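Service request form, structural biology core

Requester: graduate student, group of Dr. S.
Request type: structure prediction, single chain
Budget code: on file
Notes: please return the result as C-alpha cells.

Sequence provided:
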Amino acid sequence: MIVLLKIFALQLSLLFAADHASVPNQYLVKFKSQFTNLTIQNVKDTLGATEAEKLPSIERWYRITTSNNLSGLKLNSNIEFIEPNYYQYANKTPTDAKYSSQWGMRNTGQKDSDGNKGTAGVDIEIESVWDLTVGSPNVIVAVIDTGIDFKHPDLADNQFINEKEASGKKGIDDDGNGYVDDVSGYNFYSNKPNATDDHGHGSHCAGVIGARGNNDFGIAGVNWNVKMMPLKFLSASGSGDTEGAIKSITYAVNNGAKVLSNSWGGGGESRALKEAIEYALSKDVLFVAAAGNNTENTDQDPHFPSSYDVENIISVAALSNSGNLADFSNYGVKTVDLAAPGVNIMSTILGGTFEEWSGTSMATPFVAGVAALMLSVNPNLSALALKAKILATVRPMNSLQGKVLTGGFLNANGAVRASFY
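Core staff response, request fulfilled:
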C-alpha cells in the first residue's frame, strides 16, 4: 500500500509482490503497441473484466476491474504487462509567533517538544535567502497527498486557483482538461473537485512549503509567496492506491506544476507509476519523494516511489535537530540523495492550528519548497538543473557520510544563490 511517510506516535510478466497489499479485483494493464478498442474488449472478455479505464498521459495503460483471480492466469497475447493496483500510504527573520519553534529554518540550539536540544546552525540557512526572494505566485508546487486545508489562515493566500474554472460555468469543463469544476486541484480518491484535507498530513506538508510568512501569525513556510496545487489521492485514514497516484502526477504535470512534493510511498514496485514519473521528466517537472520511515538501507530494500531510477527524482531522508540521521529514516548511499529537517517539525494542521510531526514526509516539502524558491529567481531552470544545484550545494555532515549520496543536508542559501547562473 502507499503510506503517509509521517511517523505516528504513528518482457512479458505478471507482477505480484506477496508483501504488498493491493486493491481487490483491480489491476493495471499495459497493452502492446498495436492495439484497438476490439483488443481491449477481447482482453476484458478473457479476464472477465467489468471495467477498463484509461490512465491519463502514460501510453497504453489501463486499470481493469475483474472478479477473477489472475495469479495463475496465462496472459493474453495482447498484454505487455500487468500488475496489481497497489495501495499507497501517507510516508528575513519573520514575525510569525511560532517561528522560534522552527529549528529547520533557524536552529539556535533550542529544544524541541520532546526536550531534545539542537545543535546551533544545523538548519537550511533560509534567512539569508529571504533577503533575496520569498518566492513567487508564478511558481506552482503540487502537493500530492491527503489534500490541503486552505481555510487555515497560514495557507489561504497561497492556494492555486484554476482561473478558467473559477470564472466558468458550474458543471462544465471550462478549460478542456478533462475535469469538471477543478477550481483548485482535484480529489482522485473520491473522483470529485474538492481536494480539501480531511487528515492533516497534506496540510502539514503544505505549511512547510508555503505557509504565509511575516504575518504575525503561526509559522513561516520556505516560500511566503507560492501557489500550492492540492491533489488528493489519500483518504482520511492516509491510504490510497497507485491509480490515484498516477492520476495526481499526470494532472499536476498537465496543469502547470513544475515541482511535485510526494510524502507517501510503501507500495510494491509499479511499472505504471514509474512511467508516470518518467512522463513528468519528459515535461521537465521535478519529483521530490520521501525516502521512507523504515530504518532500512534502500540500496538493498527499495522504497517506492523514491527508489525508482528516474533522473527527475530527489529522494529525501530525515535529519534531527542535532544533525544526525533520524533514527526512523531510510538511507542509502546510492538511492537516497540528501537529508532535510524531519524530526519534530512545526507546521500547519486542520482547524487552523499547528503541531510538530516527524517523518521523511516532513523533510520532503523542505526540498520541494527550496526548488520553488529557485524557480522564483530563475524560472528557466530545468528539472535536472534544479536537482543538480540542490545536490551540489548540500552542507556536508559527518553523520550522513555513507548514508546518503551527497553526504549532506539541504542548503537553501547555496541552492538559491546557485540558481542565478
